[in-house]
Design a protein that fits this description.
heterodimer; A: 265 residues; two-stranded antiparallel ribbon; 2 strands; B: alpha/beta; six-stranded mixed β-sheet; 10 strands; 39% helix; membrane (chain B); translocase (chain B); AAA+_ATPase (chain B)
Amino acid sequence: MMEKMIFGRFIPGDSVVHRLDPRAKILFVFLFIAIVFIANNAITYAILLGFTLLSVFLSKIRLYFLINGLKPVFILMAFTFFLHLFFTEGGALLFSVGFVDVYEEGLRQGIFISIRFLVLVFMTSILTLTTSPISITDGIEVLLGPFKRVKLPVHELALMMSISLRFIPTLMDETGKILKAQMARGSDIGSGPIKERIKAVVPLLIPLFVSAFKRAEDLATAMEVRGYRGGEGRTRYRQLNWRIMDTLSLLLLVGFAGLLWYFRS
Amino acid sequence: MKGTILSFEQVTFTYAPEDKSVKPAVSDLSFSIGEGEWVALVGHNGSGKSTIAKLMNGLLFPQQGTVKAMGLTMSEESLWDIRSQMGMVFQNPDNQFVGATVQDDVAFALENNGVPHEEMVVRVRESLQQVKMADYLDHEPHHLSGGQKQRVAIAGALALRPRLLILDEATSMLDPQGRREVIETIRELREATGLTVLSITHDLEEAALADRVLVMSAGHKQMEGTPDEVFSSGEELTEMGLDLPFAMRMAGLLKQAGVPMTGESMTEHELVEELWTYYSSK
């Protein structure tokens, strides 16, 4: 199950989207989230959907892969769809099943909201699928740069994020080891009623916590010895370069927003 | 001997200064390391080895005595200057890997010291080449073996072009192959650049490669000398909980059994040499 999930996963590739500057991609997605709310009729929602599919195409991610990976999201989408379908009143009465009346407006709203949802999930997934976590961190650090003025610890936040990302596989391995060790001692984690299973997780979590703290201490020492003194006077090994394509992609988005504005009712 | 890189002058350190019943972790310790030397600091658990390491890089300050490094006396002010001239590799390969990939990790100390980007790129490659990890630039730490991770850590230390490289139990968590990789890397580095190395270890086989060995026990310096001199006092070492290298124990036992051994062979290779020359001259 975990293998199919694509939230936060990065698929290395060589598409136009992959090569964009992470800053451009993050800005793009944030602006896009705002722009989505311009759409308010059939034409604009169709344009929205078309634009998203074009982005998927440009990122060279297979649509099937994307849909397959976002299955849990579709359940949520279906839920909101039916919620609107059953509870929004207005327009002509289409049909009624028992005590539930379905109106024209409800159907419209249901479809629109679902598209909005789909488009947002697709776009954010494209961001994480085409950008390595470390690049996203770099991008966020630079984009949040201005907030240093108001004492936001931008550099520290970015470093924390990159270290957490770097330790995920290490801690996963460790969890596997502890799990096996506990199983060898007769603990049964995979079966029994929920309550028992939750209880069985405790002997897994405690050793994991202990070792995570130990690691944190070691890491802090290693960082200090290697001269880490916070963000002041630090240079960056990873350089971001903003190219013409990045400017173009944001211009494209502005044009797209104009188009939506023109067609909205 | 050229200049002195690091020296301890009558250093005493205790973790509980108020409590007189607690024995100091390091007491009245003096030693120095000259430029270009390879010194091994050996001792059993609790002998004060790791405290010494922490005193060297300014994580701890002694209650008595002074620690001098690169001609500077260790203090809050000189701390960062000293740290930028010494590289340190720790025991756990995972817990000292800061960057997301090999090259990021090697660049970490350079970033901290404000080295410009162009210079960083050059130095990262150069130091990875020195430890033969240049093909792994973009690898993530969980795809590397323990030995490889330690070599990356060495590269990370070398990138700063330090005058002293300290290995704090750097091989103790590795499998035999990883250990060999790391020791071999250090040996080659020493041959190529004459780097000063201090290895803190309880592995006497590693210590046997050093120019000079310091033996610590219960916070005191017990012995000091060349590996030959130190290892010849076999029993004392065993009493301190240190195991002689296999080749030396073997030679000792052979001697007891009446085979005329010189007792100078410290590595397996030397032992084999001695044995076959003895056998063919018989």
